[in-house]
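Pyridoxamine 5-phosphate oxidase, pasting as requested.
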Amino acid sequence: MSFNLAELSAEEKNRIELDKQAAFLVWKLKQGKAGPEVFTQHQETLRTTDEQTCFQQSVDKYKRVMGVM
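Structure tokens follow.
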């Protein structure tokens, strides 16, 4: 089954991008290439509370999946 991401709304595309950014930052934390302050720094760049909530949920999800506490 395939999905055409170009057909998604701008909001859905943004959520996917935030999820990717969260996954990358958790990976960097796990690899020792960044400290926990990267999450706060990135969160400050987000425009809306909805984006911040979405990002935080993704961070929590990837921390669980990657075994980072």
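Note for the archive: The CA atoms of residues 47 and 53 lie 11 Å apart.
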